[in-house]
Specification:
globular
């Protein structure tokens, strides 16, 4: 019997040739077993998908009693490079989260920073969260989720000195899938329900739904984290269709398209994956 993914495999292969474009897909169950994948171990710049392990790390520290979700932290735009401690500031124009910027000079709770880092993909909220949580905690989350060495969160956002020195944030579709599957099954090594239940709840309040969720039938419950910069568009979603087994779909694209076109490409992949696993399904 031919694979239901044969046509999609061929299309992705053809799209991946021009200009060195890379398209990666991982579809799996909550045990972290791949159902189908396409170039899923290829490295991609992480963009905002790095915020997923960061928020898991934050919740782990909360559950361990080391941090308090309702503790307030100063909101500022002054950070130090992981490379050499040199100062840098962020560009408000590159952020999707005006609410956190409006609080500069005031405070926000850890709960609010985690929420805005995910649901609004807030960059300022993310860097503030990194300062509180620590990159070593993020690395431990990736290790416990059984991610490969390719997936690394090495620096905060807009740390130009670190970036110039080759310190970066990278992911693979397979590793994003493994981490989201761990969230979905409440992986005990990551803290189980007390940690991962609240993480999924935040992911389910996602405001940016133009990638994987847009390719699924209307109303399909998802908890997701996307990421995009020019030339890069990713999304990983925990999908819980009513009356069916849940699954995880991660799509990573490094391709020369504008933001809307790249998001549409990811949505098309999700639509094709759904069709391949649901013969005759009507999608949005």
């Amino acid at each position: 019997m031919p694979s239901p993914f044969t046509d999609l495999d061929s299309r992705l292969t053809s799209l991946g040739h021009p200009d060195g474009a890379t398209l990666s897909v991982w579809l799996g169950d909550l045990d972290g077993r791949a159902v189908w994948s396409h170039d899923a171990d290829a490295p991609h710049y992480a963009a905002s998908t790095m915020k997923l392990p960061l928020v898991v790390a934050a919740m782990r520290r909360v559950v361990r009693g080391e941090l308090d979700l309702d503790a307030s932290y100063p909101v500022h735009n002054a950070f130090v490079s992981v490379l050499d401690g040199s100062p840098f500031a962020m560009d408000e124009g590159d952020d999707q989260d005006p609410d956190t910027w409006a609080a500069v000079g005031a405070t926000r709770t850890l709960r609010e920073l985690a929420e805005h880092a995910i649901t609004h993909s807030g960059n300022l909220a993310t860097n503030l969260l990194i300062d509180v949580v620590g990159l070593s905690e993020v690395a431990e989350v990736l290790r416990l989720a059984r991610c490969s060495g390719t997936t690394v969160v090495g620096r905060g956002i807009e740390d130009a000195a670190a970036r110039a020195a080759g310190i970066t944030n990278t992911v693979t579709a397979a590793d994003l899938g493994l981490l989201m599957a761990a969230v979905g099954r409440r992986e005990p090594a990551l803290g189980g329900e007390p940690v991962l239940g609240p993480v999924e709840a935040i992911l389910a309040r996602q405001q940016h739904l133009d990638q994987v969720p847009a390719g699924l039938p209307a109303g399909t419950p998802t908890a997701s984290k996307s990421g995009w910069i020019p030339g890069v568009s990713h999304d990983v979603a925990l999908v819980r269709p009513v009356g069916e087994e849940p699954f995880v779909l991660a799509v990573c694209t490094t391709v020369d398209l504008d933001e809307a076109e790249a998001a549409a490409l990811v949505a098309d992949v999700a639509r094709d994956v759904w069709a391949a696993t649901h013969a005759g399904a009507v999608t949005a």
